[in-house]
Amino acid sequence: MAMKRSSSSEKDQRAEKNTALLSDEFQIHIFVFSLLVICLESLTFLGSSFDAYYSESFIFATIAFFMFYAGIGYIFEMFVGKRVSAVFSVIPSILIFFLLNKSAFQSIAASALLAAVLRIVFVLLPKKKSLITIGSFVLGALSLYLYFEKDAEFAGKITATILFVSILILILSSVQKIFCEKKLFQTTEAFPFYFFMILGFLVLVIPKPEKPIDWAKALEFGDRLVSSFNYYMPDIFSGGTYKSGYSNLGVTGGRVSLSDTTQLKLKTYERPYFIFEDESGTKIKRRRTIYLSGGKGSDKTQIVTFVNFLHSNNIDNETAKLFSEIGSIQLEYAYLKTNDEIAPLNALYLESAGKAVEGGRSSSVHKKGYALNVTYLNIDYGSPYLSELLRDNGKNMEAMSFDEACDYFRKTYGPNLDKYVSREEYDAVCAKGFSVNSAFEYLDTNGASTELSNLAKELTEGVSSDYDKCRTIEKYLRQYKYSTDVDSIGNTTYDINTSKGASALAERFLFETGEGYCIHYTSSMVMLLRLSGIPARACVGYHYVFPFEKADSYDVSGRCAHAWPEAYIENVGWVPFEPTSAYRTQEENAWNRVRAEETEQVQYGYEPSHAPVITPDKADDDNGDNKEKSLAYELIRVVLPVIGSVVILLFVLVFGIKVVQSIRYRLASLDKKLEMDIAGIKKAVRKKSGDSYTDRGLLFEYVKRIPSEFQTQAKEVFGAYYRLIYGGDGALPITEEDVKKARELYVMLSRKIKK
Known about the structure:
Blueprint: H1 2-45, H2 56-76, H3 82-89, H4 92-101, H5 109-124, H6 128-149, H7 157-181, H8 193-205, H9 216-232, E1 241-243, E2 250-251, E3 255-257, E4 262-267, E5 273-277, E6 283-287, E7 289-294, H10 300-312, H11 317-320, E8 324-333, E9 338-340, E10 342-344, E11 347-352, E12 355-356, E13 361-366, E14 371-379, H12 384-391, H13 402-413, H14 423-432, H15 450-460, H16 466-477, E15 481-482, E16 494-495, H17 499-513, E17 515-516, H18 518-531, E18 536-545, E19 554-557, E20 561-569, E21 573-576, H19 616-667, H20 670-689, H21 699-705, H22 711-726, H23 736-754
Parallel strand pairs: 1-3, 15-17
Antiparallel strand pairs: 2-16, 4-8, 4-19, 5-6, 7-10, 7-18, 8-14, 9-13, 11-12, 11-14, 18-20, 20-21
Helix pairs in contact: 1-2, 1-6, 1-7, 2-3, 2-5, 3-5, 4-5, 4-19, 6-7, 7-8, 10-14, 15-18, 16-18, 17-18, 20-22, 20-23, 21-22, 22-23
């Protein structure tokens, strides 16, 4: 009975030790996940190149690889030490990286190497438990700072939720550890780590209410409170930093904190992406990009000018569809208060609550819930076909009659023009003409320095068309570094709608700091264009890039707030440009690069619009089938070699260790051979006895644990070992017979334990 109780006790102790080791490993994994998310989020604010990799898929792929290496490491630990096994376990990461880097999984190739580095660091790192205890509080503080002060997204809602639950688990465990070490708890036993993991899991899985709490009133009260304080004590809360969001262009040009607060919700029946073929015939899927401008409303002048521009260039419906189409979208105001009507560029018609909306500003403030239905002309300003037309705009343009324009618009786009522009409005625009004189107010250069004027002359000298001058200035400005962490010019607020305000921001950006964000790029391009004789204006609103996945609605956050310049091209109208280096140019966002007659299938829709080059359903089916086959092939191509590499490494470890030990044994002296055999015998006995056995250096304790049929031989072998260790110079030397008995005993015990 005593032997059974002892055996049971040893099993319990072994189980407790294994549980403790597993808990430690879980703790390391949770800490690494939290550390990874917070470090990557911090690097994005510092303008690091890691921003290109930062996503939920990258983070979870890194943790998956980290767990994979940990699993391999535990297998290798059966044959070598923990440190050696850590190094061997991450060797497959090199193979994984090269395989992924040439496959459909290229985007997560870097995560394989990053996970390998993290695994080695956390295995070799001394005092890990103390580091995790202290680090948990540091990560908690950093996460709160990033969330509340920097409006951090943490790569997405799922990542953010898991991050805060993970930090909660770590902090609770660390608090308990500190209190237990100081004996502040009266309980005899502390909660195990997996207890806190269960609590965290419950927090994740407990159903959330379908309707979120409406914090609008609380936020409005907070805004009023902060505004009242800032009225008397400017910047008491901002510290010189203002949050991104819809602006009236009155800015200091100082630091900007990117806000994740949803300001608009978009709904559309249109796909969030285009599919087209490039010059090589490759099908390309590109996400839609939309500019939402405030304060313009339905710009009748812009519509009339552009329609006459197309007609004067003999553009038929087949050619027009290469760079333009009718689109429709609904915008709902979220946490946004403004008098401005916010709509896509080239809005044709705005409607709210079943009534037409006239003008770009309302007499009343629009608040949360205000909705606009907008029909607009979606123009691909990056299209090479449109670019050719914009360069060749020198001819005098003769306006069509209203009836001719309606007929032309119907043949080109589907609906009649009189649905959006009345006869009186059309005739009024045509009477003013389409020349540069109609935009003279946007040529103001008051406040611009000689240095700024000389730069404009240097950039555009010898450039023929106004359009090419715009592209030249745009390209030049995109060389400047994008940064939201810039100092303001004193406490002065500059309105970039004015020439003086734009000039001040432009000159500081171009000649002093050399870095800035959209406000600085826009101010610079507006002033350089005006100094080059091209009317220009600053526009403000949002730049939103749709996801690839279609959704019921799309959230436009404060992060999407943007400013961009527009130039007035004679006989064309206002054309937007993108000098801000952090954003893609119009050419990079272009969605049609092949003429209609060069493709076999073309489908062009009006309301809603469709992919303009190939039949959407067929393209999706083909892409879906090919994508599934490709992913399956790539997965097999990556997984099989990795599994093979792990097997080969395991083979090398097992047989390599045996070969090395065999060579060492053969080359050793008789004394050394006996010592090696005794070490093997002791290891075999300990393995049979379990981890609970403590070696006190007494060999007779080992004899008791050896099976009875081998105990006599064990006493003889241990006696020879004692003679070697304690016999002194007069003792009998170790003989071949002694070594033979020791080797036989070691081999028999090893085989018996395996059985």
